[in-house]
Q: What sequence folds into this?
């Protein structure tokens, strides 16, 4: 019986090590939004940028503190990409939200995925209408002044 326990423990260790190595080799990272405290309004368009190895990802928008709720689900571009997401869910109040990029739909229990930094979702449209938000580009990178 102890030989069976040793074999089971060894097999479990191999599975855990291979999963850990796969996660280390395949980082999932948000490039934008990339900092806490950004503010987006109802119907704003956010250029969500990320690095991943997902061939068919899901991008969820979650909101709330403590008992978070899924507010939106999108199918963004695969791999390292930037995908424009229109925040088109309604609410009676402003919310703390974040994006969650996953390889599977929520019906799958896979832990793989990553969260963006939290942002404030303002439940009313922006004065003057919706805007597009994207990462700021350092002018020295585009003009050669750096």
A:
């Amino acid at each position: 019986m102890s030989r069976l326990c040793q074999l089971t423990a060894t097999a479990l260790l191999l599975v855990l090590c291979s999963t850990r190595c796969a996660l280390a080799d395949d980082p999932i990272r948000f490039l934008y939004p990339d900092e806490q405290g950004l503010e987006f309004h109802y119907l704003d368009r956010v250029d969500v940028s990320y690095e991943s190895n997902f061939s068919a990802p899901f991008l969820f928008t979650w909101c709330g503190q403590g008992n978070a709720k899924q507010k939106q689900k999108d199918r963004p571009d695969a791999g390292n990409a930037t995908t424009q997401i229109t925040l088109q869910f309604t609410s009676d109040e402003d919310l703390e939200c974040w994006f969650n990029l996953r390889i599977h739909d929520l019906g799958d229990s896979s832990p793989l995925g990553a969260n963006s930094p939290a942002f404030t979702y303002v439940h009313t449209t922006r004065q003057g209408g919706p805007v597009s938000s994207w990462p700021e580009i350092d002018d020295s990178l585009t003009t050669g002044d750096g």
Q: What stands out?
A: Residues 28-134 form a domain with the Immunoglobulin-like fold (CATH 2.60.40). The first helix runs from residue 2 to 25. The helical segments are 2-25, 139-143. The longest strand covers residues 95-102.
